[in-house]
UniProtKB/TrEMBL annotation, chain A:
Residues 1-20 form the signal peptide. It comes from the Bacteria. Pfam families: Peripla_BP_4 (PF13407). Keywords: Signal. It comes from Vallitalea longa. This is LacI family transcriptional regulator. Residues 47-306 form the Periplasmic binding protein domain. It is found in: Cell envelope. Gene3D superfamilies: 3.40.50.2300. GO terms for cellular component: cell envelope. Belongs to the bacterial solute-binding protein 2 family. GO terms for molecular function: carbohydrate binding.
Automatic annotation (TrEMBL), chain B:
This is ABC transporter permease. InterPro entries: ABC_transp_permease. It comes from the Bacteria. It is found in: Cell membrane. It comes from Vallitalea longa. It is a multi-pass membrane protein. Its main location: membrane. The lineage of its organism: Bacteria, Bacillati, Bacillota, Clostridia, Lachnospirales. The chain crosses the membrane at residues 20-40, 52-71, 101-121, 127-147, 168-189, 220-238, 299-315.
């Protein structure tokens, strides 16, 4: 048995060496046709596109926007995301593998504002430009790596402030309000909570504030508990639509649909349907598809050495019954 | 006497298992090399092999401890949370100005303590390992959140980065860590009484007890070993990212179990070779890397990796059946 094993290991090594030897020649072979091609037409550009995850409609819309733009410009788009949850380690691995596979530029939605320093260092070393979408990379990280990265996205804080301003205009002063927040410690969770609070905090009477970790089921149970403790609540601001949908379930079960208005964030299609039906008061829309489109467009400019923009605010808007139809039409073009 | 018999029996199986495993690993390497070449991309390059090893190193290190626990017939679901905990605790300590070497030592001690608690509850408290570590998975993650109010920590000194992001003789230093740690543990498992005892507990706990092995103590040791390697894995991840994330390591318990299972260690314990766990971790790393380079959509990646785990065990069992 031992002999067989050593023979096997030897043959493995042999195969590995042969393959490793092959590499250089085949590499040259594979290179030459593209070299010939480039003299005739432009060299094919490949852009790596890394959303936070791909099990979320928001990011799927962003990717669809990017894909449409890529097709229009005739470039290749490599889309990769972490499997279950946003993870700095998984994103680093994806970026490393994209560098290996030879992408010309990377558009990334960081899993956190601060976790990308190693990945950015590697991009910088490999000379690969990066565009930051949706969630802004912390300035201290960019300074540390000494790397210039344009940012295109919305300000979550501004979006939530927008919702807050709307509440001041349309709801009576002192209305009992509950806030459902996202994952404790995440920047966008804090931004949305603070944005709403800073705008409407003095106008509304916040009687409960609880984290439901962006999840539907947790929004549901949190709202159940909040309602039993505070029966006079008139308004719920949920920092994302998932939690808002959960909150709506709880409100319906409590038979208080007429008394409580729910405002969500993200404008996912399910939430838009609910706004249309009048089940939900409103939801703050961001424009993820725009982020994808602008990311790809500007990345191509950067790669071709043309001008690109350093910062683009892609905007936010409160969608209510009045403008929901128009927004749904806009979204349709990026649905799959 | 009984131990010797168990061990010899174990050794025979190891060779059979190794064969399938190595063939599988080489097959995956060749397939990816060829398919990537056809797609005009490189897979088998020196730089990418380094990448795969560095990317797999954290899981590979955690899987050492997981292997030991699984060899005793147990399981440790708390390793992923330990990685997150060690990261945040280490981050706070480093930020407070403590020397990095001391911090690393303290973190390993933390791993020992976590392992000792798990082990004591399992062996002396007679609670199933699955339950105890499922509980500690939650407790440790919760404590991690409390520790820094769920916030990540960044902006570390260069010294921390250097632990993982240094090259020696042109190779990433992670390769060295992985090989040294595996060498140490393989020596312990094959050349010391502790190693033999661990095998004997998983093979037949009653027989081992009758043969005079202090099975409860050994069981506790196995969880301590798992805690130590989870802590080292946490330190390596903290250094690799230079960023402490309270959610870091979620799912690593499953990845480490996958590496162990692909490496051919039976979940019932007693049989298998820790060295093969490294190959298991590398297979997982190669799969992830290769599929990403080929730009396979992430949903399919998870399906393929799941299939790989089941296939690995299927071939293992088929070999076993034929041997019988």
């Amino acid at each position: 048995m031992k002999k067989r094993l050593s023979t096997l290991i030897m043959s493995i090594l042999l195969v590995a060496f042969v393959l490793a030897g092959c590499k250089d020649t085949t590499k040259d072979d594979s290179k030459s046709p593209t070299d010939d091609g480039s003299s005739n037409k432009q060299k094919e550009i490949t852009i790596g596109f890394v959303p936070m995850t791909l099990n979320n409609e928001y990011f799927i819309t962003m990717v669809n926007g990017a894909k449409q733009k890529a097709e229009e410009l005739g470039i290749k788009l490599d889309v990769q995301a972490a499997d279950q949850h946003a993870s700095a380690a998984a994103q680093l691995t994806i970026v490393e593998n994209m560098i290996t596979s030879g992408v010309d530029g990377i558009c990334i939605v960081p899993s956190s504002s601060e976790g990308l320093s190693t990945a950015l260092t590697k991009c910088k070393e490999a000379g690969i430009p990066v565009i930051n979408l949706d969630t802004k990379i912390d300035q201290s990280i960019l300074d540390e790596v000494d790397f210039e990265v344009p940012f295109y996205g919305t300000d979550n804080y501004a979006g939530a402030k927008f919702a807050g301003a709307y509440v001041i205009e349309n709801f009576e002063k002192g209305i009992e309000t509950a806030i459902l927040t996202g994952i404790e410690g995440q920047q966008n969770a804090a931004d949305r909570r603070n944005g709403f609070f800073d705008a409407a905090g003095s106008h509304v009477n916040v009687v409960a504030e609880q984290s439901a970790n962006w999840e539907v089921d947790q929004g549901y149970t949190a709202t159940q508990n909040i309602l039993s403790a505070n029966p006079n609540i008139g308004l719920i601001f949920a920092s994302n639509d998932g939690m808002a949908i959960g909150a709506l379930r709880a409100v319906e079960e409590a038979g208080k649909k007429e008394d409580i208005s729910i405002i969500g964030f993200d404008a996912i299609s399910e939430a838009l349907n609910m706004v249309e039906k009048g089940d939900m008061y409103g939801t703050v829309a961001q424009y993820p598809a725009e982020m994808g489109i602008l990311g790809v467009e500007n990345m191509v400019n950067i790669i071709n050495g043309e001008d690109s923009q350093e910062y683009i605010d892609t905007g936010a808007k409160l969608i209510t019954k009045e403008n929901v139809e128009e927004h749904k039409k806009y979204c349709e073009q990026f649905a799959e | 006497m009984k131990n010797d018999v168990l061990e010899k029996d174990g050794m025979k199986k190891i060779d059979l298992q190794s064969l399938t495993l190595y063939i599988g690993a080489v097959a995956i390497l060749i397939i990816f090399t060829v398919v990537c070449r056809l797609a005009g991309k490189n897979f088998l390059t020196f730089g990418n092999i380094q990448n795969v090893i560095t990317q797999s190193s954290v899981i590979a290190v955690i899987a050492i401890g997981q292997s030991v626990v699984i060899l005793t017939g147990g399981i440790d679901l708390s390793v992923g949370s330990t990685v997150g905990f060690v990261g945040i605790l280490g981050g706070l300590l480093i930020k407070s100005g403590m020397p990095i070497g001391v911090v690393c030592l303290l973190l390993v001690v933390t791993g020992i303590l976590i392992g000792a608690c798990n082990g004591a509850l399992i062996s002396y408290g007679k609670i199933p390992a699955f339950i105890v570590t499922l509980g500690s998975l939650q407790i440790i993650r919760g404590v991690t959140m409390v520790l820094n109010s769920g916030k990540p920590i960044s902006g570390f000194p260069e010294g921390l980065k250097a632990i993982m992001n240094t090259k020696i003789f042109g190779m990433p230093i992670s390769i060295l860590y992985v090989f040294i740690l595996y060498a140490i543990m393989m020596t312990i498992m094959t050349k010391t009484r502790l190693g033999r005892w661990i095998y004997s507990i998983g093979g037949n706990a009653k027989a081992a007890k009758l043969a005079g092995v202090k099975t409860k103590k050994i069981e506790v040791y196995s969880y301590i070993i798992s805690g130590i390697f989870a802590a080292i894995g946490g330190i390596l991840l903290l250094s690799r990212l230079s960023y402490a994330d309270p959610n870091a390591g979620s799912g690593y318990e499953l990845d480490s179990i996958a590496a162990v299972v692909i490496g051919g260690i039976a979940m019932s314990g007693g049989k298998g070779n820790i060295g093969n766990t490294l190959v298991g971790a590398l297979i997982l790393g190669m799969l992830k890397c290769g599929l990403q380079i080929l730009n396979v959509p992430v949903y399919f990646q998870t399906i393929i990796i799941g299939l790989a785990i089941i296939t690995a065990v299927f071939f293992d069992k088929a070999k076993e059946r034929r041997a019988e």
